[in-house]
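Input sequence (391 aa), recorded before submission:
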Amino acid sequence: MYSGLFDLPWWGYVAATLVMTHITIAAVTIYLHRHSAHRALDLHPLVSHFFRLWLWLTTGMATKEWTAVHRKHHARCETPEDPHSPQILGIGKVMWQGADLYKAETKNHDTLEKFGQGTPDDWIERNVYTAHSVAGIAIMMMVDFALFGFIGITIWAVQMMWIPFFAAGIINGVGHYWGYRNFQAEDASRNIVPWGIIIGGEELHNNHHAYATSARLSSKWWEFDIGWMYIRIMAMLGLARVKKIAPKISFTPKAQCDLETLQAVITHRYDVLAKYARSLKRTCAGEIRQLKAAHAVRIDRRLLKRLLHSDAQKLSALERERMREVLSNSQVLDTVNSMRQELAALWQRSSASKDELVRQLEDWCHRAEASGIVALEDFSRRLRCYQLAQT
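Predicted structure, token format:
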């Protein structure tokens, strides 16, 4: 039986498979995602073309198609137009049929034309990579067979399943369904785990949706993004240039809000809302206990959790009615809810001038500090100190 050019022990075949699939993951997260879709970094032409070639061999995906589908996902996130939202289509369908959803969207001409701008359109892209996507996959199978023999066919099969399962299924499915959130983005994105290794850093999906154009997906000191590590190595070698990363917050004591405060609050709006929820969580929990003790209202903990984490417009008519019942029995909860909605509305008032928005933010802080709710007062005083860190 033909055993290929390399006769390896069992662990050698496992290692070879993991190395090749990891290169594919790196190509997706660095080239397709951070470079092509979000323009967060520039790549040297040699690196860029290597990734294009490797993806043609291991996935058959065209740069324009992947970029367009992903950009549409961000533009239409968690709506019926989202190509792969588990909130709309169900977690099971996205996890197990994610590749089919992707392929269906790539056939949408409007998606490609509207969201696929700025992607490679040279001779080899048009006449080889896009025109003959199946050929690359077939060549990869022959290469695996030549290198590893009949077990190479198994290695090839794993390579073919890797991206459809981990990227199309896990990231698009689990990444919008289970996990933890550092930021209250307007969608359901989640960080699956804090160690972005298996899927190249894409596990930190909530961080990415909060700062979509950042080349670095890690946010907290304890999070690790291996894709960012590779980018930094390439940058030191002159093979990549980072264009954008998520800005940092600094805190400067201030007597009142100014333009710098406003800019920092709007830039870090998802972080602001997450900190608001964490700051008021204990206060709300205390109110819930008092309402339960007084039997004033039937408490729905899930609904009250959404009070701190959701826009009122996202609640159903029944949920809004039940929310009104709860809020009518607690002045504290009513204040916490209304102040959150007002804070979120600050960056949605596109017609207001910067000076008007600064005054509105200062008025919000003034009322928060006069609310009599200690946690809200403390949050407001810290919010006044927001400022973008100098880079």
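Checked by second reader. Residues 10-242 form one domain.
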